[in-house]
Amino acid sequence: MALKIGVVGVGFWGSNHVRVLRELESAEVEAVCDINLDRARYVAKKFGVPSYYRDLDEMLKVEELDAVTVCTPSVSHAEVAVKILESGLHVFVEKPLASNPDECLRIIDAAKSSNRFVMTGFIERFNPAVTKAIELLRAGEIGEVIMSHGRRIGWWPQRIGDVGVVKDTAIHDIDLTRYIFGQEPVGVYARGGSLRHRFEDHIQAIMTFEDELRVAFIEANWLTPRKKREMLITGSEGVISIQFLTQAISLEKADVVIEPIIKWSEPLRIELSHFIESLSSHRKPLVDAIDGTKAVIIAEAILESMRGNKPVEIDFERFGL
Prior knowledge:
The protein is of the alpha/beta class. The chain has helices at 12-23, 37-47, 56-62, 77-86, 101-114, 128-138, 165-181, 267-280, 289-308; strands at residues 3-8, 27-33, 51-53, 67-70, 90-94, 118-121, 145-153, 185-193, 202-209, 215-221, 228-235, 238-243, 248-253, 256-258, 312-313. The chain folds into two domains: 3-123 and 269-287, Rossmann fold (3-Layer(aba) Sandwich), CATH 3.40.50; 124-266 and 298-319, 2-Layer Sandwich (Dihydrodipicolinate Reductase, domain 2), CATH 3.30.360.10. The two termini are 36 Å apart.
């Protein structure tokens, strides 16, 4: 039986959620909600969604839903997600999970109290190129992972108005670093600032781990004219290069360069399919609220380091994690 889904916030990215969910046989989009009623009406009509709302409380009261995806501005994520969880529904929250760690913890507590799942929208985990890279890493193709260098640069996306480049863009590589290394960072040193925008628009950060052999570099900005999304993973026996936009990957070793053929697939479709399948099988999603919270904690440490021009310790225990 298809799960009944609602979508809150149907701007640029939320409308993509509606489009993809409408294409999944395992999901039925029953309602959309947006503070701009005309936009909600337009998206509902465009994708054949039965109902549309301006008020979330009304949607939750009237509709019989199984889950809701949240694509509102990040400053509202905690309030919206908690309200959905307290209504007894599962929730998918786009990154960042919330504006700060305390708000993230509110979501975690609400999920525990309601016994419902929360998935954080880290779409790159579902990029086919990343899936292949993880497969090669786990098979030991480049030996022991030593370093990663994530690079996300390009013009400022005008749809973003409530966070800077760290929580909008770099946070993807923050999460991927944890995923790839299988370890938690213990410290960070960052430089950056705000050259043209209200929030920080360029950042360079180095993350350290208890294993002193390992280090992760993250570079992100909203200043350069060409959009690039790439990562290099260096190991003791080779290097893996990932191009996120084209989903191309290469494996370089001492005597050979391999470029696996990867069938292009839309990461959002894979990601939302995973969310629906997890709920249907009563299985915790790959990326849960803990992952979302840890990414926000690291992002906050990067910002603190940038502002203070000093190394900052990353302390998950302080937040009970």
